[in-house]
Design a protein that fits this description.
It contains eleven helices and eleven strands. By secondary structure, the protein is α/β, with parallel strands linked by helices. The strands form three sheets. Strands 3-2-1-4-5-6-10 form a seven-stranded parallel β-sheet, sandwiched between helices.
């Protein structure tokens, strides 16, 4: 370990959107802490989504290429880590065979737990997914029994149990966060595309009927991580929280809020949900012909139309002070750049 600071954090899958923003927050908040970004991507291939370049070449930020599916690969970059954060996952749907989700998400969790024991790390943080809840017709929270319907959701739930088992046998500290749709600078997902389209058209876009879409601003998610670490735990207690906003976000909430911030004309472009239903039905039989990354893949259109009402009951119960309501989050995001 080349860092001259205190024991570093290890962020597996750290070159991604959440990992880079979490790394930046650690380096900014804890001057004595270093960060190891460990990722399947080679360091030279990383697309920077957070301004970490200022730390490159310093002892505080180290970049390593490794594969969580390969324990030997992880051991090559082992150190007495302070915290190990498991962000590594195969997550794109569609795009992978079922076995691939389990090979990375479950076996990767097993290898990270093994390494934690070997290096003496007693704190893990795992980003799971709200997909563990499966389909639902009403609001769900951490007390809801998970019923994942996809290989991705099933693999994430199994990975949660792997890390629960580690915490039970080691007495280590474990936090499991199930994030909703995370948006912010560098994300380049559905929310980014929506906001860019509205800015381009200079008018809000609305879908009728509207659907709840549980989400969270990246800065709020980072705040949640650091706040959780400050909370006292009972013996063998595991922190399980839904990483979603305290506001009931929906597709149309982004348009209304952006309209207020940018003073857009009150003449939204209305997209009937029924038209999207028809398009999805017509495209469904041809789904296999669409590239996995296609912008208008039938599976992505179906997700757009599906309600995702996930609630942060555990955070509310714990008294977490939410800092980033949607209007503040969007204004901050626009200022930093999409």
């Amino acid at each position: 370990m080349s860092t001259e600071h205190s024991q570093p954090w290890a962020l597996y899958g750290g070159a991604g959107f959440i990992g880079q923003h979490l790394a930046l927050s650690i380096l900014q908040r804890f001057p004595q802490d270093g960060v190891h970004l460990l990722d399947l991507q080679a360091p030279g291939a990383i697309s920077w989504k957070a301004p970490l370049q200022q730390y490159l070449g310093t002892p505080r930020l180290e970049l390593h290429q490794c594969d969580v599916r390969d324990l030997a690969s992880l051991r090559q970059h082992a150190a007495p880590f302070k915290v190990m954060v498991n962000l590594a996952a195969i997550h794109r749907e569609p795009g992978h065979r079922a076995a691939e989700y389990f090979a990375t998400n479950v076996a990767g969790a097993e290898n990270i737990c093994t390494l934690a024991d070997e290096v003496g790390c007693r704190e893990l943080l795992f980003t799971s997914s709200i997909s563990v809840y499966g389909l639902h017709d009403q609001g769900v929270d951490e007390d809801t029994t998970p019923q994942p319907r996809t290989p991705y959701g099933q693999s994430k739930l199994q990975a949660e149990q792997v890390q629960r088992d580690w915490a039970q046998r080691s007495g280590g500290r474990l936090a499991i966060i199930r994030p909703g749709v995370v948006f912010g600078s560098g994300e380049d997902g559905n929310v980014t595309r929506l906001v860019r389209e509205m800015l381009k058209r200079q008018r809000p876009i609305r879908i009728q009927p509207d659907q709840v879409k549980a989400g969270i601003y990246i800065q709020e998610l980072v705040d949640v991580v650091h706040w959780l670490r400050q909370q006292a735990l009972a013996a063998n207690e595991v922190q399980l929280i839904n990483g979603v906003s305290h506001e009931s976000l929906s597709f149309n909430a982004y348009g209304r809020t952006l309209g207020r911030i940018r003073e857009l004309p009150n003449a939204p472009l209305v997209v009937p949900g029924r038209a999207l239903d028809w398009a999805t039905a017509l495209m469904g039989p041809l789904a296999g012909l669409f590239p996995s990354g296609a912008r208008f893949h039938p599976q992505r259109l179906r997700k757009l139309l599906r309600a995702n009402d996930i609630r942060p009951t555990a955070l509310n119960r714990m008294g977490y002070p939410f800092h980033w309501p949607l209007q503040r989050a969007l204004a901050d995001w626009l200022e930093k750049g999409l």
